[in-house]
């Protein structure tokens, strides 16, 4: 009799566990770049069980130089993508209905980093210089900035020469470019680590130049917002993700360790990831995930103010929603 009771209890426990596993809603998140501190909040949410507590089974897909998040979600490879608003709006205008559902990053980490020896001290000094620029959707804020400065990007004497920059800092180190694109939390420190001291560099933050655009938002396709069950799932995802970001800010070193544990490439280092998480926390500080509509509108105005070659040609409609964050709150 006793054996039967033990067996029955064990069977019941397994049934409950199986039921719990079946109940977890699958959701796929596509990152904009490789596994690193830039995405610490999501890895923390998964590692600390915040997604599981919300009844979610979240798969986090790292990005890379050959991964375009809009293409991934268009092909059905993800439910949610991390992208910059300029890229998302440009993609939306081309016909893919991406919608911002949350904005964990309040500030931009984008900047141009120049060698001091070039004589560049202000943006007007860019004229006639060679500037390294990332493409694949990352070029939009830069192109908009140059248009605001009245500088053409065709390499002529009255503009700048654009060097298509790989995702490294080699053009500055090898003096192929006078300035290169860097993020406050990543490539800038790669330049420092390469041996160029900070006092030999001049930086221009997009935030300081009033041309910053929103970065690292969460985007879905419009059809997801038309599905009540998906809306519920997305609300749980956003709430758990923001809990992950809160934890990362409170425990930056642990967050960096969690990122390293998820780095299948083995390319990341503890020093760099701890530094990156610390810088990323400055960009997410004060965010509850709710999109600042005024900041979104500033992004739109910046992109529209592109002279003869604007990033987008008209104000978008339906490009963001508070439907998910309202439900999450």
UniProtKB/TrEMBL annotation:
Entry superkingdom: Bacteria
Catalytic reaction annotation: N(6)-(pyridoxal phosphate)-L-lysyl-[4-amino-5-hydroxymethyl-2-methylpyrimidine phosphate synthase] + L-histidyl-[4-amino-5-hydroxymethyl-2-methylpyrimidine phosphate synthase] + 2 Fe(3+) + 4 H2O = L-lysyl-[4-amino-5-hydroxymethyl-2-methylpyrimidine phosphate synthase] + (2S)-2-amino-5-hydroxy-4-oxopentanoyl-[4-amino-5-hydroxymethyl-2-methylpyrimidine phosphate synthase] + 4-amino-2-methyl-5-(phosphooxymethyl)pyrimidine + 3-oxopropanoate + 2 Fe(2+) + 2 H(+)
Signal peptide annotation: 1-23
Pathway noted in the entry: Cofactor biosynthesis; thiamine diphosphate biosynthesis
UniProt keyword Oxidoreductase present: no
Keywords: Iron, Metal-binding, Pyridoxal phosphate, Signal, Thiamine biosynthesis, Transferase
Domain spans labelled SsuA/THI5-like: 38-255
SUPFAM superfamilies noted in UniProt: Periplasmic binding protein-like II (SSF53850)
InterPro entries, sorted: NMT1/THI5, SsuA/THI5
Keyword Metal-binding: yes
GO biological process, one term: thiamine biosynthetic process
Molecular functions (GO terms): metal ion binding; transferase activity
One Pfam family in the UniProt entry: NMT1
Quaternary organization: Homodimer.
Function description: Responsible for the formation of the pyrimidine heterocycle in the thiamine biosynthesis pathway. Catalyzes the formation of hydroxymethylpyrimidine phosphate (HMP-P) from histidine and pyridoxal phosphate (PLP). The protein uses PLP and the active site histidine to form HMP-P, generating an inactive enzyme. The enzyme can only undergo a single turnover, which suggests it is a suicide enzyme.
Family statement drawn from the similarity comment of this UniProt entry: Belongs to the NMT1/THI5 family.
PANTHER family cross-referenced by the UniProt entry: 4-AMINO-5-HYDROXYMETHYL-2-METHYLPYRIMIDINE PHOSPHATE SYNTHASE THI11-RELATED
Protein's UniProt name: Thiamine pyrimidine synthase
